[in-house]
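Input (structure):
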């Protein structure tokens, strides 16, 4: 090592290229995209209201053991009591606190909505994108299958399947909703995939030797993300309404506590004749609010794919 004219050893040069970076660029980009998407949705007043309402419902259901004043299955109270300071929404005919059941019932209803909506969307994405991109005989068979599920009325089909698999619990309800709720989303995604199939970036990927599934999920899928999210919230909204309807008809597990079973027992006990309107109104209102929150969120999701909607907000 040489020394300078002053007799001091020169400082060792640093090599920036040897510096270890701890951040993951893929994760960073993903977080940045999610952040921008959330910020875009948040700027829409309707979507902002939907996000706040949806978040309150989710948090209340998640912290039900803390928020609930009583055990929802505790029946040591007086039967069919009216509204009071101890029981804000009264008690059931079995002596259970209605407010506690309302808080705990959100867990089942929200879980069914999210799981059934997610599964329906996954099936719709796989079927819709592959059906819209491939031009083979299998595509015609998939088209026949989708059209068959679209032609058959969904409500009678759900009732028949749920009645055949009665008392199977929440999993059966989710299965019934998924089986009857994926076809519409597949049809919509197939139409959008057909419009993207002839775009230049898809053609370039095909000429570069990319496989069919890589083109579908690496080229087409990212350009349909807002439509897929929109489809998820639509499927989740339909799922919570379907779950409540099946439970109200007595086709679910009546021993569980959900907003649908609350309506079922309220109807069986003729609460309107006894003046206990809260037993019927409260769960119906919560079902409506959950559906409204997800519908309002879709207004902001639409803005992700169509910036021209800003003028309407």
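Output (sequence):
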């Amino acid at each position: 090592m040489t020394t300078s004219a002053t007799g001091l050893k020169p400082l060792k040069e640093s090599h920036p290229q040897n510096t270890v970076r701890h951040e993951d660029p893929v994760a960073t980009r993903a977080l940045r995209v999610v952040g921008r998407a959330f910020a875009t949705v948040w700027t829409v007043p309707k979507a902002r209201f939907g996000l706040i309402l949806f978040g309150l419902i989710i948090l209340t259901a998640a912290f039900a053991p803390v928020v609930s004043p009583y055990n929802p299955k505790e029946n040591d109270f007086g039967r069919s009591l009216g509204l009071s300071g101890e029981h804000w929404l009264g008690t059931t005919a079995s002596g259970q606190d209605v407010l506690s059941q309302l808080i705990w019932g959100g867990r089942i209803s929200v879980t069914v909505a999210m799981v059934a909506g997610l599964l329906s969307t996954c099936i719709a994405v796989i079927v819709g994108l592959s059906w819209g991109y491939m031009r083979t005989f299998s595509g015609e068979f998939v088209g026949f299958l989708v059209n068959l599920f679209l032609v058959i009325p969904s409500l009678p089909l759900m009732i028949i399947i749920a009645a055949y698999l009665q008392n199977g619990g929440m999993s059966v309800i989710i299965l019934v909703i998924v089986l009857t709720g994926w076809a519409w989303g597949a049809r919509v995604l197939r139409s959008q995939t057909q419009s993207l199939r002839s775009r230049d970036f898809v053609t370039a990927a095909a000429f570069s030797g990319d496989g069919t599934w890589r083109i579908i999920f690496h080229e087409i899928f990212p350009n349909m993300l807002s439509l897929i999210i929109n489809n998820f919230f639509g499927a989740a909204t339909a799922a919570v309404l379907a779950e409540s309807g099946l439970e109200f008809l007595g086709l679910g597990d009546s021993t569980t506590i959900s907003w649908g079973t609350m309506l079922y027992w309220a109807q069986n006990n003729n609460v309107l004749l006894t003046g206990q309107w809260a037993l019927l109104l409260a769960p119906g209102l919560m079902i409506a609010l959950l559906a409204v929150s997800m519908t309002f969120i879709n207004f902001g999701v639409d803005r992700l794919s169509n910036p021209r909607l800003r003028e309407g907000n």
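Notes: Residues 98-133 form the longest helix (36 residues). The two ends are 69 Å apart (CA to CA).
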